[in-house]
TrEMBL record:
Pathway: Cofactor biosynthesis; tetrahydrofolate biosynthesis; 2-amino-4-hydroxy-6-hydroxymethyl-7,8-dihydropteridine diphosphate from 7,8-dihydroneopterin triphosphate: step 3/4. This is 7,8-dihydroneopterin aldolase. The keyword Protease does not apply. It comes from Hymenobacter polaris. Catalyzes the conversion of 7,8-dihydroneopterin to 6-hydroxymethyl-7,8-dihydropterin. GO terms for biological process: folic acid biosynthetic process; tetrahydrofolate biosynthetic process. Residues 4-116 form the Dihydroneopterin aldolase/epimerase domain. The lineage of its organism: Bacteria, Pseudomonadati, Bacteroidota, Cytophagia, Cytophagales. Keywords: Folate biosynthesis, Lyase. InterPro entries: Dihydroneopterin_aldolase, FolB_dom, GTP-CH-I_C/QueF.
Amino acid sequence: MGQIALEGLEFFAFHGYYDEEQKIGNKYGVDIYLTTDLYAAGASDKLTETIDYEVLYRLVLAEMQQPARLLEHLAHRILDRVLGELPPVRRARVSVSKFNPPLGGICQRARVTLSRRRQPPLGQ
Protein backbone atom coordinates (compact mmCIF):
# COMPACT_ATOMS: atom_id res chain seq x y z
CA MET A 1 0.00 0.00 0.00
CA GLY A 2 1.03 3.57 -0.56
CA GLN A 3 -0.34 7.05 -0.92
CA ILE A 4 -0.74 9.34 -3.90
CA ALA A 5 -1.49 13.00 -3.15
CA LEU A 6 -2.27 16.10 -5.14
CA GLU A 7 -1.82 19.07 -2.82
CA GLY A 8 -2.46 22.73 -3.36
CA LEU A 9 -4.83 22.45 -6.32
CA GLU A 10 -6.41 25.87 -6.93
CA PHE A 11 -9.60 26.70 -8.77
CA PHE A 12 -11.81 29.71 -9.36
CA ALA A 13 -15.35 28.43 -9.00
CA PHE A 14 -18.91 29.45 -8.23
CA HIS A 15 -19.81 27.66 -4.99
CA GLY A 16 -21.44 29.13 -1.91
CA TYR A 17 -24.48 29.14 0.29
CA TYR A 18 -25.48 32.64 -0.79
CA ASP A 19 -26.72 33.34 -4.32
CA GLU A 20 -24.24 36.22 -4.59
CA GLU A 21 -21.33 33.84 -3.99
CA GLN A 22 -22.52 31.67 -6.86
CA LYS A 23 -22.63 34.74 -9.13
CA ILE A 24 -19.26 36.36 -8.38
CA GLY A 25 -17.22 33.22 -7.62
CA ASN A 26 -14.23 32.73 -5.37
CA LYS A 27 -10.89 30.95 -5.12
CA TYR A 28 -10.89 27.39 -3.77
CA GLY A 29 -8.20 24.92 -2.83
CA VAL A 30 -8.26 21.12 -2.89
CA ASP A 31 -5.90 18.56 -1.38
CA ILE A 32 -6.60 14.93 -2.18
CA TYR A 33 -4.93 11.80 -0.79
CA LEU A 34 -5.47 8.30 -2.17
CA THR A 35 -4.40 4.99 -0.68
CA THR A 36 -3.70 2.31 -3.25
CA ASP A 37 -1.29 -0.51 -4.03
CA LEU A 38 1.85 1.06 -5.53
CA TYR A 39 3.97 -2.09 -5.70
CA ALA A 40 3.31 -2.93 -9.38
CA ALA A 41 4.07 0.62 -10.53
CA GLY A 42 7.21 0.72 -8.41
CA ALA A 43 8.43 -2.54 -9.91
CA SER A 44 7.42 -1.89 -13.54
CA ASP A 45 7.81 1.91 -13.92
CA LYS A 46 4.58 1.87 -16.00
CA LEU A 47 1.90 4.55 -15.69
CA THR A 48 -0.78 1.95 -16.42
CA GLU A 49 0.05 0.30 -13.07
CA THR A 50 -0.87 3.33 -10.94
CA ILE A 51 -3.22 6.30 -10.66
CA ASP A 52 -2.55 8.85 -13.40
CA TYR A 53 -2.24 12.30 -11.77
CA GLU A 54 -3.77 13.98 -14.82
CA VAL A 55 -6.84 11.74 -14.66
CA LEU A 56 -7.21 12.46 -10.94
CA TYR A 57 -6.90 16.21 -11.56
CA ARG A 58 -9.57 16.09 -14.28
CA LEU A 59 -11.98 14.25 -11.96
CA VAL A 60 -11.55 16.95 -9.30
CA LEU A 61 -11.83 19.72 -11.92
CA ALA A 62 -15.10 18.29 -13.25
CA GLU A 63 -16.66 18.48 -9.78
CA MET A 64 -15.24 21.94 -9.09
CA GLN A 65 -16.96 23.22 -12.24
CA GLN A 66 -20.41 22.18 -10.94
CA PRO A 67 -21.77 24.68 -8.37
CA ALA A 68 -22.53 23.54 -4.83
CA ARG A 69 -23.93 25.40 -1.84
CA LEU A 70 -21.77 23.66 0.78
CA LEU A 71 -18.13 22.61 0.89
CA GLU A 72 -19.31 19.40 2.54
CA HIS A 73 -21.41 18.54 -0.51
CA LEU A 74 -18.58 19.37 -2.88
CA ALA A 75 -16.11 17.16 -0.96
CA HIS A 76 -18.68 14.35 -0.91
CA ARG A 77 -19.12 14.59 -4.70
CA ILE A 78 -15.35 14.50 -5.26
CA LEU A 79 -15.04 11.34 -3.16
CA ASP A 80 -17.96 9.72 -5.02
CA ARG A 81 -16.35 10.52 -8.37
CA VAL A 82 -12.88 9.31 -7.42
CA LEU A 83 -14.05 6.04 -5.86
CA GLY A 84 -16.50 5.47 -8.71
CA GLU A 85 -13.99 6.00 -11.51
CA LEU A 86 -10.71 4.76 -10.01
CA PRO A 87 -11.27 1.16 -8.82
CA PRO A 88 -7.71 0.63 -7.48
CA VAL A 89 -8.25 3.33 -4.81
CA ARG A 90 -8.83 1.75 -1.41
CA ARG A 91 -9.23 4.94 0.64
CA ALA A 92 -9.57 8.60 -0.24
CA ARG A 93 -9.40 11.80 1.76
CA VAL A 94 -10.18 15.24 0.36
CA SER A 95 -9.95 18.73 1.84
CA VAL A 96 -11.78 21.57 0.13
CA SER A 97 -11.00 25.14 1.15
CA LYS A 98 -12.74 28.41 0.35
CA PHE A 99 -10.42 31.40 0.48
CA ASN A 100 -11.64 34.56 2.25
CA PRO A 101 -15.12 33.26 3.11
CA PRO A 102 -17.79 35.92 3.74
CA LEU A 103 -17.93 35.71 7.55
CA GLY A 104 -18.02 39.38 8.45
CA GLY A 105 -14.44 39.16 9.72
CA ILE A 106 -10.96 38.12 8.73
CA CYS A 107 -10.55 34.46 7.80
CA GLN A 108 -7.97 33.23 5.29
CA ARG A 109 -9.90 30.08 4.47
CA ALA A 110 -12.67 27.76 5.57
CA ARG A 111 -11.89 24.06 5.09
CA VAL A 112 -13.83 20.82 5.12
CA THR A 113 -12.13 17.41 5.13
CA LEU A 114 -13.90 14.12 4.38
CA SER A 115 -12.51 10.62 4.02
CA ARG A 116 -13.95 7.37 2.84
CA ARG A 117 -12.86 3.76 2.56
CA ARG A 118 -13.98 1.62 -0.37
CA GLN A 119 -16.51 -0.92 0.83
CA PRO A 120 -15.55 -4.52 0.04
CA PRO A 121 -17.98 -6.50 -2.10
CA LEU A 122 -20.67 -8.39 -0.16
CA GLY A 123 -19.51 -11.76 1.08
CA GLN A 124 -15.89 -10.74 1.62
